[in-house]
Q: What sequence folds into this?
């Protein structure tokens, strides 16, 4: 396999008052095409920060990020927006569904942003069919008109997965995707992610604090105090 996404020498700090708080300390990462990687570590180790920097939600202080060999950490804000909307799909622990939108509308929202009002209306039938197909795939074909407040935690996470897939991303980034779910719903979401990875060859990077969850990935990267301490194959 070839390297799909890589990072070299990533440093990132945040400010707390007047003082900088270092989070990432020279992190190097390589992820192959179609690989399912878990990032683990204690709270505050830099897991979510690394995921956000890789996915262009935040910029590193220094270091480089490459996608298929092309550097992407120094592109324009417009190009960064396009990467977030087209190349990377995001799944968050707290779902971030829009409460006033139906399940179907939430899944369509990235496509509304991509095409704009007139472009979306011109493609509406085709895009709605795609979104409905994704919701069927994640077991929510019967929940198209329900709003987030009418869904369970597991259903909201499945809707968030469908939304992340709507733009047909190359890389799926998941930040604690089972963190708010009970064991049964959490395993169901993991099974779905694993199936998508195997069926579509979708590259996935997942942050988790749970060793059982991490063990279901192809490989585990451990962060300790903002540094990569260990790379290991996952143990099932």
A:
């Amino acid at each position: 396999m070839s390297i799909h996404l890589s990072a070299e020498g990533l440093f990132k700090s945040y400010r707390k008052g007047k003082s900088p708080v270092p989070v990432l300390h020279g992190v190097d990462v390589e992820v192959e095409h179609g690989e399912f990687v878990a990032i683990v570590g204690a709270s505050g180790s830099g897991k979510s920060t690394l995921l956000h920097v890789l996915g262009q939600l935040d910029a590193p202080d220094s270091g480089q990020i490459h996608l298929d060999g092309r550097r992407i950490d120094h592109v324009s804000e417009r190009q960064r927006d396009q990467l977030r909307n087209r190349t990377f799909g995001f799944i968050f622990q707290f779902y971030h569904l829009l409460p006033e939108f139906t399940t179907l509308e939430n899944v369509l929202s990235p496509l509304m942003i991509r095409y704009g009002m007139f472009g979306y209306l011109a493609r509406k039938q085709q895009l709605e069919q795609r979104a409905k197909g994704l919701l069927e795939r994640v077991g929510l074909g019967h929940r198209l008109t329900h709003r987030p407040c009418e869904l369970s935690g597991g259903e909201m996470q499945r809707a968030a997965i469908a939304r992340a897939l709507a733009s047909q991303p190359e890389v799926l980034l998941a930040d604690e995707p089972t963190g708010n779910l009970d064991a049964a719903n959490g395993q169901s979401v993991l099974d779905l992610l694993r199936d998508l990875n195997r069926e579509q060859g979708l590259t996935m990077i997942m942050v988790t604090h749970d060793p059982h969850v991490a063990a279901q990935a192809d490989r585990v990267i451990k962060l300790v105090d903002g540094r990569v301490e260990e790379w290991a194959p996952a143990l099932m």
Summary: The first helix runs from residue 47 to 54. The chain has seven helices and ten strands. Residues 81 and 216 are 31 Å apart (CA to CA).
